[in-house]
TrEMBL record, chain A:
Keyword field: DNA-binding, Transcription, Transcription regulation
Similarity section: Belongs to the BlaI transcriptional regulatory family.
GO MF annotation list: DNA binding
Residues forming coiled coils: none
Protein name: BlaI/MecI/CopY family transcriptional regulator
UniProtKB/TrEMBL annotation, chain B:
InterPro entries recorded: Beta-lactam_resp_regulator (IPR052173), Peptidase_M48 (IPR001915)
Family, similarity comment: Belongs to the peptidase M48 family.
Gene3D superfamilies (alphabetical): Metalloproteases ('zincins'), catalytic domain
A GO term, aspect molecular function: metalloendopeptidase activity
Cofactor: Zn(2+)
One GO term (biological process): proteolysis
Name used for this protein in its record: M56 family metallopeptidase
Peptidase M48 domain boundaries: 116-194
Cofactor descriptive note: Binds 1 zinc ion per subunit.
């Protein structure tokens, strides 16, 4: 994963997506340093978490003197939005990508993705 | 002078209205998509130059204030009657407003496209993972098969896990070669320019038809690259499997998407490779004709427009 630019942002998102609830920077730091070969500084993690909150990717809630951070959207929602981009054309702007072959008719893409998501969450609930 | 203006208008009409239908008829049977692509790009660019030339000529012709701008130093306005000047000024204003309105439609669209592409990359950075075997591929964890590329410095190709599961390793490689061909041949930039041309000037049949035909031709050009590297049969296998998306599209009772374009690509790949030296000679001849046409389609309106405008500066 290290190769992707801004990999710390990505690691922080991963930890918070896995976490059962909102985390403080100290908890986040402990989780990040647990299986890392290079320990991160508190300030670094706080700065990057703050940047992610400014970008709208994290929600910040006050907890005493500190803040707790949680993702604004589930990981699956980003995946679905990417898939929608990949499967549909937008009338609002030109093409942003070239796809190999259309696997789903663009007008059905949203229904298909919704159906899959429901099926997936239904299976987890059972 | 009159002949030059008429020539310019004729070029615009010829390129804008006739080139498209003619290319559409010829292009489908062309052996090489590259030659057809060159013709279309030439025709669209030429249409654009010719239309811009007509507008410029109209703005700069004698009683119009544009001409006064051009001829400020020669002080030519007093020759013309006051009424003519007012009429020409009003006409110029209308023309300028119309041009401004069209450009104002195109530019925000370009900005939205670029912004959306950047947002897409940002989301990929958050949720996609790197493919271990291929240095230029990102993997998206999703069962629906999809494979695409978008221009980026690193890892420009994206495939879903559904694609990896659906294809054999050889077919998967063919898909990657196909996408790399898109990236290498800068098809994304071409599509962006075409979309912009269509947003600004959607009326000429040539541009309308180019928007409909060119994407398929670009797919065919990328198909050729993949077929050369991995074999046509492998590529057809990949196309069939991904487009059919068994169990996914079928479960919703959806018809096969864009069946026409897909069938055309498959048919073309299956009938390829049976040509001898005669076919090669024909391809070379059509490539020569195509490059001549493309060069002419761009050069002719450029020369006529330049000549008209030069003539206008001498005229008063």
């Amino acid at each position: 994963m290290a190769g992707l630019g801004g990999s710390l942002e990505r690691s922080i998102m991963d930890v918070l997506w896995e976490a059962p609830g909102p985390l403080r920077v100290r908890e986040l730091l402990a989780e990040l340093n647990e299986n890392a070969d290079k320990t991160l500084a508190y300030n670094t993690v706080q700065t990057v978490a703050e940047r992610l909150a400014q970008k709208g990717l994290l929600r910040r809630t006050r907890d005493g003197l500190a803040f707790r951070y949680s993702p604004t959207r589930a990981r699956e929602e980003y995946a679905v939005e990417l898939m929608l981009d990949a499967l549909t054309e937008s009338a609002d702007h030109g093409s942003i990508l070239t796809r190999f072959a259309e696997s789903v008719p663009p007008e059905d893409a949203r229904h298909l993705l919704d159906a899959l998501r429901r099926r997936a969450s239904g299976a987890e609930g059972e | 002078m009159v002949y030059l203006v008429l020539g310019l208008i004729a070029t615009a009409v010829l390129l804008g209205c006739s080139a498209g239908p003619v290319l559409d008829r010829l292009g489908r049977s062309a052996a090489r998509p590259g030659t057809a692509i060159a013709c279309w790009v030439g025709a669209v660019t030429g249409t654009f130059i010719a239309c811009a030339g007509v507008v410029a000529a109209a703005l700069l012709s004698p009683p119009a204030p544009g001409h006064g701008l051009l001829e400020w130093l020669r002080d030519c306005l007093p020759h013309h009657g006051g009424k003519a000047i007012v009429t020409a000024a009003a006409a110029s204003l209308v023309l300028l407003a119309a041009c401004g309105f069209r450009v104002a439609r195109g530019l925000p669209r370009l900005r939205r496209t670029v912004r959306h592409r950047r947002r897409h990359r940002e989301m990929l950075r958050l949720v996609a993972s790197e493919d271990e075997r291929h240095g230029d591929v990102l993997v998206l964890d999703h069962p629906v098969p999809v494979a695409y590329s978008l221009p980026a410095r690193r890892r420009a190709i994206v495939v879903s896990t559904g694609t990896r599961d659906a294809l054999t390793p050889a077919e998967f490689d063919a898909v990657l070669v196909h996408e790399r061909a898109h990236l290498r041949q800068r098809h994304h930039a071409l599509l962006l320019m075409l979309d912009l041309a269509h947003a600004v000037l959607p009326w000429p049949p040539t541009i309308r038809r180019a928007k409909r035909t060119l994407p398929l031709l670009l797919e065919m050009a990328a198909d050729d690259a993949a077929a050369r590297a991995c074999g046509g049969r492998t590529l057809v296998g990949a196309l069939r499997r991904l487009a059919a998306a068994p169990g996914v599209a079928g479960a919703l009772g959806a018809a096969s998407p864009d069946a026409g374009a897909l069938a055309e690509r498959v048919l073309r790949l299956e009938s390829a490779g049976t040509g001898g030296p005669r076919r090669a000679a024909r391809a070379a001849a059509s490539a020569f004709a195509a490059s001549t046409f493309a060069a002419l389609a761009v050069a002719a309106p450029l020369v006529v427009a330049a000549a008209t405008i030069t003539e206008l500066t001498h005229l008063c």
